[in-house]
Amino acid sequence: MSDVQQEIVRLGQQVSELEDGLARVCQEYADAYSLIEPFAEQFSSEVLPRHKKLLVVQREIADLNAMLGDDEAKGAADALSPLLEALNPDMSVSAQFERAQKIKAGEKVHFTPKIDEAPTEMQELFRAIVIQVHPKLTNVEEERIRHERTYDRARRAYARRDGEDLKRLAQSVNAGGSAMPAVADQTTVDMLRNRIRKLEVINRQMEARVYELQYGDISKLRDAYYEAKAGGRNLMNELVISLKAERKKARAERDRLREKVYGSQDA
Predict the structure, then answer these.
(1) To the nearest whole percent, how much of the chain has pLDDT over 90?
(2) CB 246 within 8 A of CB 85
(3) Least buried of 62, 93, 101, 190, by fewest C-beta within 10 Å?
(4) 33 in the Ramachandran plot: left (φ > 0), alpha (ψ -120 to 50) or beta?
């Protein structure tokens, strides 16, 4: 075996290990995202924009107060938003005691659904699809868009444990075939090294996204959403209503301060 062939074998093994890592982290992402998908659209389109608009008005209020001589208002405004309250609930001592008692009594205090591990066959099918069509593995825009659609469908199928859909997708992308090139030359070595670099970057990016879903602010919102749901409430609807009301009050306060600073617009 020539030096080039040995290098190709070594690089091929490295590619395979990184592809295994990509499949694992994509599986984790699919499961983690499935827990926020029920409210993700409403959060992005209705809750978050209203939260941001409220913060803008609150910043204006802080600036106006600073102009009126309030030294404490010169720093960053303390954000007061129903969304932030949902992310960081201020649990009273009595509420903490009640929660501890429930745990002691064996009552359920965590309402986020538990996801069971997927069967091995599904994991293998998902791996075969992901290493072929992960959108970030291609630099060709048309191909990236096409792969994005396929990857998203595979992610959803894996999350709902739909083995039949995964099989159809695997067949459609000709997944599972060898990615190893037939020709052993320097071009092949360069191609494998390029794939290794891409896989290393993608894996780090996906790991960061999974971490955020599992432990970041969105995970707090996820837990709050399912706890509210267990009580028959829709947290997103509640946040939309609260944010509307808070912004209305904030705008009234901002207008009052504007008049105090600049005088009546009719003057």
Answers:
(1) 70
(2) no
(3) 93
(4) alpha
215-251 pLDDT, tens digit per residue, is 999 999 999 999 999 999 999 999 999 999 999 999 9
Q: Is residue 179 part of a domain?
A: yes
**267 in any annotated domain:** no
Look at residues 112, 227, 129, 237 and name the one whose alpha carbon lies nearest to residue 174.
Answer: 129
Distance CA 108, CA 85 (A): 23
Work out whether the CA dihedral 118, 119, 120, 123 comes out positive or negative. negative
Residue range(s) defining the domain that contains residue 65: 3-262
174 vs 147, residue with greater confidence: 147
**C-alpha distance across the termini of the chain, in Å:** 91
How many domains is the chain partitioned into structurally?
1
Rounded mean pLDDT of 99-109?
52
- Which of 2-6, 162-166, 201-205 shows the lowest mean pLDDT across its residues? 2-6
